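Typical record was shown:
=====
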Amino acid sequence: MKILLAYDGSDCAQAALDDLRSAGLPTTAEVKVVAILETWLPPPSSWATLQGASQASQEYDTLALAQRAAVSLRSLFPGWDLTAQEEIGSPASILLRIADDWKPDLLIVGSHSRSAAGRFFLGSVSQKLVHEAHCSVRVARGRVQEPDTPLRILIGVDGSAGAEAAVKEVANRNWPANTEVLLVTATWAAPHLFTEASASALMQWLADEQARLEGIVQSSQEKLQAAGLKVSTLTKQEDPKTLLCEEAERWGADCIFVGAKGVGKLERLLIGSISSAVAARAHCSVEIIRHRG
């Protein structure tokens, strides 16, 4: 597994590192840690020399941040092959460029940082990555976990290839004993129609879709149980953005897994706008899985 991890040294970023212990990640992986010195406009010419010295110092500090994160990760995952690097420029653009070149399986960023380095992990950066990265993205948030509480993973299921990939990803991860999974499916009511014929056709389509989804949820449940996970299901008639976030909060989920976008007949559940909304609103970590072939 190849993992690209962004780090800015803030408390939030450190919490995101701690969150990785609850991500089910493999004991061996190739991991690149990147810290970015954010720059906007070139300095005035009269300040060039002074600014150059200042930037050199900042670059050194930025690389030190990446190296510090690598040291922290090495203590958590001694089998990981870790490298650290610093970059200069726009964080989102640089991370997307590195991801396109290096092709990681997973890009990990923190959320809502307030570090002195600037707006490294603000929503606009993480949201840009969620929308534009070609790999899976984890928006990591630290959570206070009560002792002896099992790890809890919520998965949005809509019958799409993206949702299927999310289930498969969870099934393939390395979770501790007693990890619990909740499969959540949002359904929708038939809108008011003005003709009996159109109403009848839609009701038949809804019935067929409901049967199809029930089969998919059952298959997903069996796949996750075969991986040793404790699985329960929830189907509710509600807006998917609201349902996923509210159930994650109510249930005390450690992470929500969703597909990057739905391509099934109920695609509104996991289309990009929904996955990005969940990533922005959820109180726990959110992992957006991109289906590859």
